[in-house]
Structure formats: structure tokens, C-alpha cells
Amino acid sequence: MNTRFSSLVTIKKNAMEKSERVVQNANKDLDSAKKALENAYTSLNSMASPQSGTMAQLLANRTLFNSQRHQITHNQEWINYSSSQLETAQKELKSAMIEYEKFKYLELEEIKKILKKQKIEEAKELDEIALMTYKQKNN
Q: For the stretch 13-23, what's the b/e string if a residue is b when 16 or more beta carbons lie within 10 angstroms of its beta carbon?
């Protein structure tokens, strides 16, 4: 049954579904960031410190360690950014869900009013028919 709120309900539902997809993507992005950070830590822990060698080898190894530490820092920033994006997406989803539920409720109330009005009209018609048949039987 279509009401004046039906199109709004559809629009709000689409907006809510879009927000759900954004939250899912933000979750995937956060998971990727966490895995990248975990991999960076694993890689750093697997690197062995040289015990002997030339100065060039020691400097090259130090550069590798610094690069890995920079990668860890970058991944931590990525996690922070992804977390904030996820929080924002969740807030938008909550707001979209509230809007959807609000218009869905209004649509249901409108349907109840229409059904009540139809029942009253039907009862009036049945009363008229009963009255007409009663008069015909008495005449």
C-alpha cells in the first residue's frame, strides 16, 4: 500500500544501505591496516642485527631497520586514520538508521489510518445495505 511516506522510506532505506556498505569498507580498510602493521612488526622482529662486517654493511642494515620502523609508524597512522573513518561511518549509519525507522514508523501509522478509514467506510456500507434489506422485508 502506497502512502505519502513510501517514497521517502525507499530513499531512506537506500541511504541506510549505502551507509552500511561504507561501514563494511571501513572495517575492511581497518583490518588491512592491522594486518600490515602486524606484518611490519613480524618483519622487524625477523631482521637480525649484524655482529660483524664492514661499515657499509652496518650502515645498510641500519637503513633497513630505520625503513622498517618508518613502515611501522606509517601503518600505525593508517590504523588511526582508518579507525576515525570507521567511527564517522558508524555515526552516519546510526543517523541513517534512525531516519529510516522514523519514516517507516510514519508510513505504518499512515497505513493504520487508511485501514481504519476503510473499515469505517465498509461498516457504513454494510449498515446501509442492512437497513435497505430490512426495509424491503418489512414492506
A: bebbeebeebb
CB 5 within 8 A of CB 103: yes
The neighbour count for residue 41, using CB atoms within 10 Å, is 14
Domains of the chain: 6-106 (1.20.120)
pLDDT at 14: 96
56 contacts 38 by C-beta, under 8 angstroms: no
pLDDT of residue 131: 86
Instruction: Give me the helices (H) in the chain, please.
Output: 6-46, 55-138
Q: Going by C-beta distance under 8 Å and a sequence separation of 6 or more, which residues neighbour residue 42? A: none
Rounded to whole angstroms, how far apart are CA atoms 21 and 14?
A: 11
Give me 3's grid cell: 502512502
Task: Give the pLDDT means over successive 10-residue stretches in the chain (139 positions).
Answer: 89 96 96 95 86 86 92 96 96 96 95 95 91 83
